[in-house]
Design brief:
mainly alpha, about 75% helix, MetI-like fold, about 300 residues, 2 domains
């Protein structure tokens, strides 16, 4: 039998025309869907020169929107980080009734529209909502104020940290934690000395994604904030108001801040992926488990 008879028949995917056609489609989509909008944002933001750009982003309403966005992220991201770590630890390191239900509940924000989430919060904490009269009687304002914005932002970003940690911690198993516990380590010491070093890059990866989503959230926040200019407008909502006021340059100037955030997030994402985040990395060996003397030190 000749050698040519043993050759594998060519597949459609091996044809150069097929490969280069796919590459051309991808590049065209990236150019028109991703790169073109970013170029337009930069060009329009600086269309009247750098002084006008600086004047636009330094307006009081814009500065307030930026500050409100930062404050929201400063509250929502740490809370969701703690929630994600606790949820991942409970799901991967312990067995308890309702474990599968908890896993499903964590995924709910990804399947529910942010606008629907905002409306739900309105009907729960609004003046005419379930707890509205009680909150009003103690003069605690949730809706159309910072607490409502934070709650809505926390809802839409709740799964990010947990979703990064759960697959990784499941792949790592429980052996190292059980070994540390058998040596007398407390739960906190086990987490800090054994678990955290193995998940630190995935944890940072989830935090970066969570922060980017908080600062760019529009749908849920637009419902619960009331869109009060200079008071409850986050940066995405303020951009919409500027555009509706026919202040296109000001809107693009404010949008450039979010675009810059997106670029910073992308760079951080790439750097963290190089460190092993975003994928299932191998845990350290049992040699990394604290010894008896280290546990009691």
């Amino acid at each position: 039998m000749s050698q040519s008879s043993h050759r594998r028949p060519p597949r459609v995917g091996d044809a150069p025309i097929f490969k280069y056609s796919l590459l051309a489609i991808v590049l065209l989509l990236v150019a028109f869907v991703v790169i073109a909008p970013m170029v337009v944002i930069g060009a329009e933001a600086f269309s009247r020169g750098i002084p006008y750009f600086l004047e636009s982003i330094s307006e009081p309403d814009t500065r307030h929107a930026v500050m409100l966005t930062v404050i929201t992220a400063a509250i929502a991201v740490p809370v969701n980080t703690l929630f994600g770590v606790a949820a991942a630890w409970a799901i991967t390191k312990h067995d308890f009734p309702g474990k599968r239900l908890l896993t499903i509940v964590i995924e709910i924000p990804f399947s529910v529209s942010p606008v629907v989430a905002g409306v739900c919060y309105l009907f729960v904490y609004g003046l005419q909502g379930l707890f509205g009269p009680t909150l009003d009687s103690i003069e605690l304002k949730i809706m159309f104020a910072l607490p409502g914005i934070v709650l809505a932002s926390m809802f839409v970003t709740a799964p990010f940290v947990a979703r990064e940690l759960i697959p990784l911690m499941q792949a790592q198993g429980r052996d190292l934690e059980e070994a540390a516990t058998s040596l007398g380590a407390s739960g906190f010491r086990t987490f800090m000395s054994v678990t955290l070093p193995n998940i630190k890059w995935a944890l940072l990866y989830g935090v970066v994604l969570c922060n980017a989503r908080v600062m760019g959230e529009f749908g849920a926040v637009s419902i619960v904030s009331g869109n009060i200019r200079g008071q409850t407008n986050t940066l995405p909502l303020h951009i919409e108001l500027l555009y509706q006021d026919y202040n296109a340059v000001g809107a693009f100037a404010a949008a450039s801040i979010l675009a810059l955030l997106a670029l910073v997030t992308l760079v951080a994402k790439v750097l963290l992926e190089r460190q092993g985040a975003g994928r299932r990395s191998r845990p350290t060996t049992l040699a990394g488990t604290p010894t008896t003397s280290e546990v009691h030190s």
